Amino acid sequence: MSARAKKGRSLTTILTLAWALSAAAAGAETYQPQNQVRGDIRVWGSPEDAELLKLWDEGFRKHHPDAHVVAQLHGPESTIAALYTDIADIAFVGRELRLPVDNMAFQWVKLYPITTVEVANAGLTGSRLAGTIAVFVHPDNPLRGLTLAQLDGIFGGEHKRGAGKLRTWGDLGLSGEWRERPIHVLAPPVDSIAALFFGRVVLENSFKWNTALQEFPSEAAAIAAVARDPSAIAYGRMGASMSGVTALPLAVKAVDAFVMPTVDTVADRSYPLARVVIVAVNRKPGQPLDAKVREFLRYVLSEDGQAAVVQDGAYIPLAAKTAQQQLKRLD
Known about the structure:
The protein has two domains: 3-125 and 275-328, D-Maltodextrin-Binding Protein, domain 2 (3-Layer(aba) Sandwich), CATH 3.40.190.10; 133-267, D-Maltodextrin-Binding Protein, domain 2 (3-Layer(aba) Sandwich). It contains eleven helices and twelve strands. The chain has helices at 3-26, 50-61, 79-84, 101-110, 148-155, 193-201, 219-228, 263-267, 291-300, 303-312, 320-328; strands spanning 39-45, 67-73, 90-92, 115-121, 133-137, 146-147, 184-187, 214-215, 232-237, 246-247, 250-251, 276-281. The strands form three sheets. Strands 2-1-3-12-4 form a five-stranded mixed sheet. The chain is elongated, with a radius of gyration of 21 Å.
């Protein structure tokens, strides 16, 4: 094993132990079966989540030796279709639903809403779609933080949050040589997963962007351009960060404290752009979930299942309180 691999494994072990201690202190529950189940649990998802599904399968089968996760990993775009065509029991979407695109076909076929369950928080590293979004500026930029209204004023064209048009760094309170300097607004494609999330949360579902916004082929390309331009700003997943840029702390409102994206602030949802990792299931209104699906998701939401999230390393486990809230969605 290489030194780098050993270091990565050691870090994972440390994070797993740290999370286990904090979870126990917060009251997370170990898994206790309510019903013994058997048979295949058909999960459709993405190849990048194969290791996490394997860990969940191995842990679940310690309690249910006759049950087995059968994974079809063709990417997130296939998961909801597999659910409403009845060839999947669980759709591991791995990101937010794109409304109404992702749920429309399900409702047309089933005539009732899709049911979603949060199984993890978006991570801070890696390239998975459910990565925590950050806002990046050049290290020379003296700005100390931004509110969601200011972000709306910078990136948006409709300004539903009331900040109005913010087009120079002086509009954000900077003085001296920065006062009249225009803000160069950079972003990934406006139809990308990151942009759809940003538009929903920051622009309050507005589809009107700053007309001067420069689109780049990817989040990484937009962030790399910030490293070359002290007047630029961009958003993208933390996993696309690089040297030469700085992630800004954010606040929902001006009266709130600025918060940096960290494991703790993502888990407790105090970071304004925290994201969640979801699965979707087919549940008829007024009817219980399929027994094996319910039991498997109970395992995923337990301390045991969330420890597997840490071991996989791509996502951040749910806080105990959040896991309890999600468990209630299974009843």
